[in-house]
Amino acid sequence: MGLKQVTLQDVIPLRHIVLRPGRGIETCYFEGDEASTTRHFAWVEEDRVQSVATVMLSSRLINGESVPYQLRGMATDPNLAGQGIGSCFLQALHEEIDGSWWCNAREVAVRFYERNGLVRIGKPFDIPGIGPHYVMVYKKTAGSE
């Protein structure tokens, strides 16, 4: 099946397993999750959600340009790691999102995002209780569509 737009409740289980293990389920809900401009996506194969992410309208000024969208909560089923599912999902999101986007990438995920067309911006910063992150950006250009 591939890329599918889903509900907030569809993304919470993988967010919990991958991004907030050992924490309460309430930590898996992000500010903006229920905004009318927010969209939740999943990579689905054989009726199984394999990867999830949320795209929010959350403009950020990066190198003098406004980047309109933020990717949040990307997570892939750890049992499927190394199979290219996250990359397929992210490439499909590049095509789906009508514009450039940015994210706060965990330090351990920076190489994954770089391999998938994102560029690291600035120095690392810490999100308390989560760890080191980098701002990363994907610039949609005429050649990337």
TrEMBL record:
Q: Which Gene3D superfamilies match?
A: 3.40.630.30
- Which residues are in the N-acetyltransferase domain? 1-141
| SUPFAM superfamilies named in the record | Acyl-CoA N-acyltransferases (Nat) (SSF55729)
Query: What single Pfam family name could you report for this chain, choosing any that match?
Result: Acetyltransf_7
Q: Per its record, how is this protein called by name?
A: GNAT family N-acetyltransferase
Q: Which organism is it from?
A: Exiguobacterium aestuarii
